[in-house]
Structure formats: structure tokens, C-alpha cells
From TrEMBL:
Sequence ranges assigned to domain UspA in this UniProt record: 21-140
InterPro entries the UniProt entry points to: UspA (IPR006016)
The organism's taxonomic lineage, starting at the top: Bacteria, Bacillati, Actinomycetota, Actinomycetes, Streptosporangiales
Protein name: UspA domain-containing protein
Pfam family for this entry, one: Usp
SUPFAM superfamilies reported in the protein's UniProt record: Adenine nucleotide alpha hydrolases-like
Length: 151
């Protein structure tokens, strides 16, 4: 069984990783989606962050790649085993649904109003993913919540 874990920086992604870490899956894919993906028009930022001819967009791309790599490294270390990494750019909820087409299970964290059951426990992007995912979805509560019957 292949499981995909959505590493959503806007949510408590650590809870999704922890939910999967102790389970035996054939393949685990960590999915990170950053918004955008289109390059800025040439010279869009010229003069804003330095002298003319200096295009700061290239420097920002490097920072984004470093941050993504650090996030993947942290998630993989937390998982405690090798995983496949998938980094997409675009509208997060659309990219997650598309990427999940090859998974048997998608794991994501509730990102809405804390402590509220039902629809309010999901933000708009996660709600879209739950409604449109082409596979099973495991929703995980953020934080350290004991399983029922414990504690």
C-alpha cells in the first residue's frame, strides 16, 4: 500500500508524519506544495531590491529550495525511514488532489478552528482535498492527542 503524507506548512504537519511513522507501508511519499510556480516576468523586480540588472527572483528561488529541502529533511528524520519526496508548485489543494492519484491513502492534518468537530475543523484547502481526493483520506488532529482509550 502506498501512502502520501501532505507536509502542509500551514498546518501541524508533524502530526501527519507521526501518524504514519509507526505503520508498515510499502511506500511513503512526502508531498510538499508551495504556492505559485510561475516565474516573474523579466525585470519585474528590477531596481526594487538592488541595482538595475540584478534580478532578485533567482535568489528567492534558492531560498525556497533550501527551505523545502530542510522541511523534507526534518519530516524524513521524524519518519525514521527513507521516503520518496515530491515537491509541487501551484494551487496547493489542486496539486495535492492531482498528486494523490497514485496513492492508496492520503494523510493530512485538520487545519481549521482548533477543537471544533465537523466542517469547521478543516480549512478551505483541506476541505477541497477531502472532497476531491481520488483515494482514501486519513484526517489527523494536530498536536499531542492521545488515542481513544488511553491516558
Amino acid at each position: 500500500m502506498a501512502v502520501m503524507v501532505w507536509i502542509n506548512p500551514a498546518a501541524a504537519w508533524e502530526s501527519a508524519v507521526d501518524a504514519v511513522a509507526g505503520m508498515a507501508f510499502e511506500e511513503i511519499v512526502l508531498l510538499l506544495v508551495t504556492e505559485g510556480g510561475g516565474a516573474a516576468a523579466p525585470d519585474t523586480l528590477t531596481g526594487l531590491l538592488g541595482p538595475a540588472g540584478h534580478e532578485p527572483g533567482e535568489a528567492f528561488a534558492g531560498v525556497e529550495e533550501e527551505q523545502a529541502a530542510a522541511l523534507f529533511d526534518e519530516a524524513e528524520a521524524r519518519m525514521g525511514r527513507p521516503v520518496r519526496r515530491l515537491w509541487e508548485r501551484g494551487v496547493p489543494e489542486h496539486e495535492v488532489v492531482t498528486a494523490a492519484s497514485g496513492a492508496d491513502l492520503l494523510v493530512c492534518v485538520r487545519d481549521g478552528a482548533p477543537g471544533l468537530p465537523g466542517p469547521d475543523s478543516l480549512g478551505p484547502a483541506t476541505r477541497f482535498v477531502v472532497d476531491h481526493a481520488p483515494c482514501g483520506v486519513l484526517l489527523v488532529w494536530p498536536g499531542d492527542r492521545s488515542p481513544r482509550g488511553e491516558g
